[in-house]
């Protein structure tokens, strides 16, 4: 009965907050219908888990609003074969969405407590295509590079060069760029000669902390 309630809330979230705002990739929408967002928030906040707003997850970190998670994910144009690097595991919700859509997700989190908590939830949900690491996300994951796509879930004043280097030719990266007051969600596309950047929208993320 409870799962039916949350399923209904997921459907409402998709139909009210995602589809009308331009989220149309069918695979992305299916992932949002499926992944139980309420399990990634504090039990006291589960009744508002499917609202289109961020929520605190402790340690001054947040779970992003569903629309922003969906926009970032859709911008990566995942087909199912990709090797993904995620910077900022956080609650693990975005990680789960990526794991639904890609072949393997490598996710880095600076805070051990959040990494372990997310890992526990994701393993209970039987995601077997995720590798976890605690460390400085600005350095990427050199031992597993290159990556087809990179998603950064924290804001930085400039795109870290190690991440550009670890992005494969033809790869796509979505990253919030700016300071604490003004940020833009930027899509980075890497080809053989150039790096193209496209502004997607304004956003508000916690800062990406370097060592």
Task: Give an overview in words.
This protein is an alpha/beta fold. It has a single domain, classed as Rossmann fold (3-Layer(aba) Sandwich), CATH 3.40.50. It has helices spanning 2-18, 26-34, 66-75, 93-101, 112-124, 161-166; strands spanning 55-58, 61-63, 83-87, 104-109, 130-134, 147-152, 167-178, 183-190, 195-203. The strands form two sheets. It has a seven-stranded mixed sheet with strand order 5-4-3-6-7-8-9. Strand 8 and strand 9 form a beta hairpin. Helix 1 (2-18) runs antiparallel to helix 2. The longest helix has 17 residues, at 2-18. The protein is globular. The N and C termini lie far apart (46 Å). The mean pLDDT is 94.
Helical run tally: 6
Strand content: 25-35%
Q: Uncertain runs with pLDDT below 50, 5 residues or more?
A: none
Strand order of the largest sheet: 5-4-3-6-7-8-9
CATH class: Alpha Beta
Q: What characterizes the major β-sheet?
A: 7 strands, mixed
Give the total of beta strands: 9
Distance between the termini: 46 Å
Q: What is the mean predicted local confidence, pLDDT?
A: 94
Order of helices and strands: HHEEHEHEHEEHEEE
Rounded radius of gyration (Å) = 16 Å
Fourth-tier CATH superfamily name: Vaccinia Virus protein VP39
Number of structurally distinct domains: 1
Give structural attributes:
globular; seven-stranded mixed beta sheet; 6 helices; alpha/beta
How does the SSE layout of this entry go?
Elements: H1 2-18, H2 26-34, E1 55-58, E2 61-63, H3 66-75, E3 83-87, H4 93-101, E4 104-109, H5 112-124, E5 130-134, E6 147-152, H6 161-166, E7 167-178, E8 183-190, E9 195-203
Parallel strand pairs: 3-4, 3-6, 4-5, 6-7
Antiparallel strand pairs: 1-2, 7-8, 8-9
């Amino acid at each position: 009965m409870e799962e039916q309630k949350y399923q209904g809330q997921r459907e409402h979230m998709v139909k009210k907050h995602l589809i009308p705002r331009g989220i149309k990739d069918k695979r992305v929408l299916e992932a949002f219908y499926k992944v139980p967002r309420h399990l990634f928030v504090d039990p006291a906040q589960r009744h508002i888990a499917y609202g289109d707003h961020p929520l605190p997850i402790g340690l001054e970190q947040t779970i992003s609003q569903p629309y922003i998670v969906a926009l970032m994910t859709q911008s990566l144009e995942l087909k199912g074969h990709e090797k993904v690097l995620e910077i900022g595991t956080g609650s693990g919700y975005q990680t789960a969405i990526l794991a639904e859509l890609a072949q393997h997700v490598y996710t880095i989190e600076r805070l051990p407590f959040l990494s372990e908590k997310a890992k526990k939830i994701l393993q209970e949900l039987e995601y077997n295509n995720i590798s976890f690491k605690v460390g400085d996300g600005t350095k990427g994951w050199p031992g597993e590079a290159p990556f087809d796509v990179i998603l950064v879930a924290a804001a930085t004043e400039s795109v870290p060069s190690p991440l550009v280097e670890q992005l494969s030719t033809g790869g796509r990266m979505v990253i919030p760029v700016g300071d604490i007051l003004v940020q833009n969600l930027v899509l980075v596309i890497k080809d053989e000669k150039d790096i193209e950047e496209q502004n997607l929208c304004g956003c508000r993320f916690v800062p990406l902390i370097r060592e």
